[in-house]
Write a structure and sequence with these properties.
Blueprint: H1 3-12, E1 16-21, E2 25-30, E3 33-38, E4 48-51, H2 54-60, E5 66-68, E6 77-80, H3 88-104, H4 108-114
Antiparallel strand pairs: 1-2, 2-3, 3-4, 4-6, 5-6
């Protein structure tokens, strides 16, 4: 997927917002908690990190061009060393799951405010 496509998909998830942090990183959040991070748009290669579950973390970190995310590996985040490390269908599925994992940690009230099924 291209950078703009990933960004559009992340922002299409319920209650998702974009925040520019740490210089020019694009941080995608739900309820003020991040679920995915895209490196700066002009960076080469373009990288992305996102939250995973335990099983997905174990599977993904054995794949080529996917590593435990620096600083966030303890929390089961992975980093794609280039955006095409996963196909579009798989990347969308993992991003949807990352969003759901973070949203599940929000209060029922907050999820309801964001239009996320409680």
């Amino acid at each position: 997927m291209k950078y703009a496509e990933v960004e559009k998909f992340c922002l299409s998830l319920p209650g998702a917002k974009l925040s520019i942090q740490w210089g020019a990183d694009h941080v995608y959040k739900v309820g003020d908690k991040m679920f995915a991070v895209l490196g700066p748009p002009d960076a080469k290669p373009q990288t992305m990190s996102f939250k995973t579950g335990d099983d997905s973390f174990a599977i993904l970190t054995k794949e080529k061009n996917i590593i435990p995310a620096p600083y966030l590996a303890r929390a089961k985040w992975v980093q794609l060393e280039k955006l095409d490390a996963l196909g579009a269908k798989d990347l969308k599925a993992y991003l949807t799951r990352a969003h759901a994992l973070i949203a599940a940690g929000l209060t029922k009230k907050k999820r309801a405010e964001l239009g996320i099924a409680v």
